[in-house]
Structure of Spermidine synthase:
Amino acid sequence: MSSPRETVERPRVLDRRVGPHGEVVLRRHGGLFQIIANGCFLMDTSDGRSERLLVRAALRELDAHGPRPAPGVLIGGLGVGFSLAEAAAEPRWGRITVVEREEAVVDWHRDGPLDAITAGAPADPRVEVVHADLAAHLAGDGEPYDALCLDVDNGPDWTVTEDNGSLYSPAGLAACARRLTPGGVLAVWSARPSPAFEDTLRDAGFVRVRTEEIPVARGVPDAVHLATRPA
């Protein structure tokens, strides 16, 4: 008697868009949602611990040097929404700005499959979702933030598009520092720790540079790089 065949479920494309930065795809694989950009896997909804830590660690770092009333946070990259959900669940944040350059990703949260992840967070009166390029937004004028939480790539050493590398350059980090209040915190998500990026942060004038690692099931740990603008 032959053994029964195992059924392997294939990822199913829910939406595919082509925009100024290339192709972005939302897939469903079993119970998981996945975002693919230009053929590069970005993220899925399997875990979310490190994306939530990105926001939580930034607030903890602010608290370590004296609590601030109603601090403002910018989240660079909406993604699957874990970071926004974490920020909206914390009543202490006074202003939450999310900058996302892919209109498709904004749509998937506004009235698409990912709205269950953010659970109404975009409608929070503290939240503003900005459809813009992050580097351009940081280079512009505007009220500074107490924390910048950046998650637009697989890390400073593994960018989604070549132009994103400018974010982690001396000029890009100088723009981040200008958009932070004195003593404000920069937090950068990465799919792997980057000692070289720690050195770049110090060379850019940031202090209290450190990295928190988050173990994953297989491979190197995820990481959140933390740095503070001098007071």
